[in-house]
Write a structure and sequence with these properties.
The protein has no helices and eleven strands. The chain starts with a strand and ends with a strand. The protein has 125 residues and is mostly beta strands. Helix content is 0%, strand content 50%. The strands form two sheets. Strands 2, 4, 5, 6, 9, 10 and 11 form a seven-stranded mixed sheet that branches. A four-stranded antiparallel sheet has the order 1-3-8-7, with no helix packed on it.
Amino acid sequence: VQLQASGGGLVEPGGSLRLSCAASGFTLDYYYMGWFRQAPGKGREWVSCITISRSDSSDYYADSVKGRFTISRESANNTVYLQMNSLKPEDTAIYYCALSSQGYPSMATADYESWGQGTLVTVSS
């Protein structure tokens, strides 16, 4: 399976961006797609995840983005989105999407087996 992340860019504080992650290949072995981010000089941080294996779509968020970010999926084209509103300078990071075959929503990078290449989000005036 391959993941292609896109949608990053430069935005002013308070602005919005929508990231996309398109999956190609065999995805039936995976249960969740997650978004992580890595700021300069910091470790990779879990942001959000969503179920992809069932008709219902449960979503989960880190406290730092809850109420500002929304994850969603479009099953017909194997794409997951991350709508980011009210962006802050501390949201600046490379954002990665990843697939997990674990049967539970995980915040651990080790539980995600397939990773996209990352897309850079810069929040600055």
